[in-house]
Specification:
Number of domains: 1
Shape: globular
Distance between the termini: 18 Å
Oligomer: single chain
Structural class: alpha+beta
Low-confidence stretches: none
Mean pLDDT: 88
């Protein structure tokens, strides 16, 4: 688990699971958890959607974006969030 981004509005955490830690026959899986702090909802992106998210972030970072621009990009994915944030 690696915190990638944390603003007043969003938090993005990267999760990686090593294939050998789970099952050598299963490919490594990972993804990104996006938490919309204001909406109090979260979404986990994996597979193709996670790859698209990463590619978009990589392209955005090349432009030296402001926090508002990063938040606007993340909001496109955060809009799909349905899971309420539950504190334990």
């Amino acid at each position: 688990m690696l915190m990638l981004y944390n603003s007043d509005h969003f938090a993005v955490v990267q999760f990686d699971t090593a294939a050998d830690a789970v099952d050598a026959d299963v490919p490594a899986r990972g993804g990104y958890e996006i938490v919309d702090k204001f909406a109090r909802k979260e979404i986990f992106l994996d597979g193709e959607l996670a790859l698209q998210f990463k590619a978009g972030v990589d392209a955005l970072i090349q432009t030296q974006p402001s926090e508002e621009e990063i938040d606007a990009y993340i909001a496109r994915y955060g809009a799909m969030a349905q899971q309420p944030v539950i504190l334990h």
